[in-house]
């Protein structure tokens, strides 16, 4: 009985092995082709990613972003080759399961690392668009300085106060960003005022002529002075001129020299730069100024003093008359 059961057991095993062997022999060509497909895609992924890395390395400032994009491209080609090989073996169900699992895993990772993923994607997008490069002077979200490093998740900016600011890439990607190094020029605006007694056009002419003598001023034909408004004590003007930026003469130095030259030009032309003046006017409808009131008050005080001096003299005369009448 035991021998019969054992024979049945080995018979089933042999039958299964024969079925598997026949199936293996039957699918052996497909298996070989699937391996060939996988090897082909592996070789293609390797060389294509290397070529892409070289191309991106020449077009991008950040080597990290170029390497990441090349690696992602390589993984995509390998996954495509794997799915094609599995489908060629008739494992379409396995392919669908892998795709569904990859989608679920990707969704979970996206929710778990949402902030990190957003910064990463923003870094990749900026690496492709290149809104700024290392060494550029940028201003964004209150940070103003020179770009030192561009990473996948953030950008390092050195401010003009010597501090290093780490800005997440999503902030630079979402918000308004000013790049002062793209056009390599910058316009300076110097406000100043002249007295109401002076001619604004004369002031504009002498200031423009003086500023254009500076070597750091470019586009001299566009240097101009414009009247802005009427101030409390002055006519307010604006000086506009262009400089190379970044350039040999820094922004602060150029502004310092411009302010100095404006003052010098106005002094040489005998044009007054006024200081604030206040005129106190009393009375509901005006017309009664403080100096007039003080003059009137002073005159009244002098008149009172004169009357007070004349009154004792009159009293003394009356007393003398009374004494004369008594003696008589």
What does this entry show, briefly?
The protein has 328 residues and is an alpha+beta fold.
Plain-language structure description:
The protein has 328 residues and is α+β, with helices and mostly antiparallel strands. It folds into three domains: 2-112, Helix Hairpins (Orthogonal Bundle); 131-179, SH3 type barrels, CATH 2.30.30.60; 185-268, Alpha-Beta Plaits. It is 59% helix and 18% strand. The protein is built from eight helices and eleven strands. The protein has helices spanning 2-59, 63-88, 92-112, 114-129, 169-174, 200-211, 251-268, 290-327, and strands at residues 137-140, 143-150, 154-159, 164-168, 178-179, 185-194, 217-218, 224-230, 235-244, 281-282, 288-289. A five-stranded antiparallel sheet has the order 4-3-2-1-5. α2 (63-88) packs antiparallel against α3 (92-112). It is elongated and about 160 Å long. The model has no long low-confidence stretch (mean pLDDT 78).
End-to-end Cα distance: 187 Å
Shape designation: elongated
Helix count, per DSSP?
8
Stretches with pLDDT under 50, minimum 5 residues = none
Largest sheet: 5 strands, antiparallel
Integer-rounded radius of gyration: 46 Å
User: How many individual β-strands?
Assistant: 11
What share of the residues does DSSP label as strand, in percent? 15-25%
Number of structurally distinct domains: 3
**Class from secondary-structure proportions:** alpha+beta
CATH architecture of the largest domain: Orthogonal Bundle
Task: Look at the structure and give the mean pLDDT.
Answer: 78
Enumerate the strands of the largest sheet in spatial order, edge to edge or round the barrel: 4-3-2-1-5
CATH topology of the largest domain: Helix Hairpins
CATH hierarchy, class of the largest domain? Mainly Alpha
């Amino acid at each position: 009985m035991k021998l019969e059961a054992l024979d049945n057991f080995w018979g089933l095993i042999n039958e299964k092995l024969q079925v598997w062997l026949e199936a293996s022999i039957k699918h052996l060509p497909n298996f070989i082709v699937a391996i060939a497909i996988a090897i082909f895609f592996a070789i293609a992924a390797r060389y294509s990613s290397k070529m892409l890395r070289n191309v991106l390395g020449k077009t991008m400032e950040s080597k990290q972003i170029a390497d990441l994009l090349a690696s992602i491209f390589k993984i995509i080609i390998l996954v495509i080759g794997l799915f094609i090989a599995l489908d060629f073996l008739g494992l379409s169900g396995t392919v669908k399961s892998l795709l569904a699992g990859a989608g679920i895993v990707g969704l979970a990772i996206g929710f778990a690392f949402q902030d990190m993923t957003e910064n990463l994607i923003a870094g990749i997008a900026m690496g492709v668009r290149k809104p700024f490069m290392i060494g550029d002077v940028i201003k964004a979200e209150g940070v103003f300085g020179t770009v030192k490093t561009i990473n996948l998740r953030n950008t390092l900016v050195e401010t003009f106060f010597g501090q290093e600011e780490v800005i997440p890439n999503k902030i630079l990607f979402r918000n308004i960003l000013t790049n002062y190094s793209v056009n390599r020029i910058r316009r300076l605006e110097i406000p100043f005022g002249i007295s109401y007694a002076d001619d604004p056009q004369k002031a504009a002419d002498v200031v423009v002529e003086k500023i254009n003598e500076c070597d750091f001023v470019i586009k001299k034909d566009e240097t101009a002075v414009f009247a802005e408004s009427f101030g409390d004590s002055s006519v307010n003007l604006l000086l506009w001129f262009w400089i190379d930026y970044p350039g040999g003469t820094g922004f602060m130095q150029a502004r310092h020299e411009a302010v100095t030259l404006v003052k010098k030009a106005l002094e040489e032309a005998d044009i007054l730069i006024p200081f604030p003046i206040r005129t106190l006017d009393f009375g509901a409808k005006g017309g009664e100024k403080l100096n007039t009131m003080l003059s009137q008050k002073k005159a009244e005080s002098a008149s009172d003093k004169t009357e007070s001096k004349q009154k004792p003299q009159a009293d003394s005369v009356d007393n003398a008359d009374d004494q004369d009448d008594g003696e008589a």
